[in-house]
Amino acid sequence: MQAEIEVRNAIESALGHKPLTCLIKNVDLLNVFTGEQYPVNIGIYRNRIVNVASKSEQLPAEQIIDGSGKIAVPGLIDTHLHIESTMLTPANFAAAVLPHGTTTVCADPHEIANVLGKAGVKMMLENTKQLPMKVYFFAPTCVPECNAVTAGAEITDRDIGEMLDWQGIVGLGEVMDFNGVIAGNEKMVRILAMGRSKNAVIDGHCVFLSGKELNAYIAAGPEADHENFTLESAIEKLRSGMYLKLRGPHVLQIREMVKALTELPKPWNIIFVTDDVMPDILKTCGHLDYICRKFIENGMDPVEAIRSVTLRPAEHMRFHDLGAIAPGKIADIVLLKNLEKFEVDTVISDGTPVVKNSNLIAPIPRIQFDPKAQDTVILKKLSMEDFEVKPQITNGKLKLNVIDFASPNGQDDQTSFLQLVLTNLIQTEIDVRDGKLELGRIALVTVFERHGKSGGKGTGFVRNLIQHGAVASTVAHDAHNLIVVGTEPRDMYEAANHVIKTHGGITAVKGGRLLASIELPIAGLMSNENLELVSKKMLLMRNAFKEMQMLDHPYMPLISLLTLSVVPHVRITDKGIFDVDGQSFVKWQAS
Fold first, then answer.
1. What domains, with CATH codes, occur in the chain?
2. Class of residue 16 by CB neighbours under 10 A (exposed 0-12, middle 13-18, buried 19+)
3. Contact 24, 320 (CB under 8 A)
4. Nearest-CA neighbor of 383 among 511, 502, 512, 490?
5. Strands 442-448, 482-486: pairing kind
6. How much is the average pLDDT of 472-479?
7. pLDDT confidence band for 414 (50 / 70 / 90)
8. Across residues 540-560, what is the average pLDDT?
9. Is it true that the peptide bond before 144 is cis, omega within 30 degrees of 0?
10. 356: phi then psi, degrees, rounded to nearest 5
11. pLDDT tens-place string over residues 514-528
């Protein structure tokens, strides 16, 4: 009955027999179906567009928005991101991204899921209720990412089957265990079969796959991938029918990518996503609008850029009533001051104005995050002995296995990110005097299992990551144990215990002095504070990194990825140094 009333209201308001709830007049519409731009009035009844007509036709309306000089585009849709990486709760995240024109997101909550399991996913869902934007989630498929790490929880295939039936879950999250898929791993096969049986969207993650392995991976179900670093790999995925999810300028050489895409006759499956956005980058650069700006600046047709954040992501996610400004679609509309510069002026979400003159005007409910997420760093105060390494000799030379970071050599962000993230294992000799290691450029790294599971500790050494002081962090992908790296045991001790005291976060200490701290008490990943405050703390942290001569990157601090045991070539977890290529552990003392 209600559906019949809504249909009748749509017909009557479109014909002018019933007043519109909102009329946007005198705007230029960018039509994502035809690529045209022309003047229109846009009629909205409640949360749907019912009439898109020429400027000469103006229907009666309860509210009128004069969009003179503005360009109307659909609300932006992000189909691959991790809200936890912004260090904001979903509610504070919504307040941060709406002014940038993002009205719909499909997030993969595998960060909090690695800490709290499916209960953490449920908490994220609860924190999105009554927000003035659409926040959906994928069911995380790889928690933990592999057996080389101890996570706070495990999500089974049975859990995923349950979550796929939850309201607000829109598909399977990035399938990172691509080796397991190709090998026919029983758990991965069951998960993919379950997704296919429910016609769920299956997001992918298959960096460096090619040829028959890539074909096998796609044939199993994943239909999109955001891990695109080389042109050859990107084109191969595009030709294989995958949605090519392209990230921002900090990890992608946009000019070269645009050139390669324009050489194809009619590439279609191109989508822009943000993936991981640090709070300071979100504050200073923006969200999907920033990626659009950069692609347009580097030669992409603005119409194609708009389609990559509206129509195509809507098609990918089976959101048939989103992604366009046309009768029957949900009224998610962004008014731009300038198309090429992608300057957002006004945002309408579900038919309601939420941003005006680039400022948020909609109230954001103060939704308290579940208190059960507030005490997840299950570690007692650490001692100095936890940061001492005792070699088998008292004096002489000792051969170490060391995780090596390459030097960026002044290259741009896009080139250096791939170079930096692919750590190698090297062997080097150091001096031992009076039973103590003289490390020089080499730093000690320890990973403490912090979920109250095994109580394990992984120990190793790293070169070129940090030159002075120490950093401790519970943002350590993907299991998010407590990682501590430093050149002085006392600084490591102080940094680690500060993080434990604050129930999670990132802390930098040098010479016994606290340089910076970001308190993240929600699952050790998120803050209760807003973007303004968290971004300031992130900038202070980056300044501390400079003082300590620690490798950093706009996309993500490198320490946060040192524990991610599915990224080549060598990582460290709470179980020790892990050779990703050989799928085996390596002792820190070389034989």
1. 2-69 (2.30.40.10), 73-348 (3.20.20.140), 374-586 (no CATH)
2. middle
3. no
4. 490
5. antiparallel
6. 97
7. low
8. 96
9. yes
10. -135, 135
11. 999 999 999 999 999
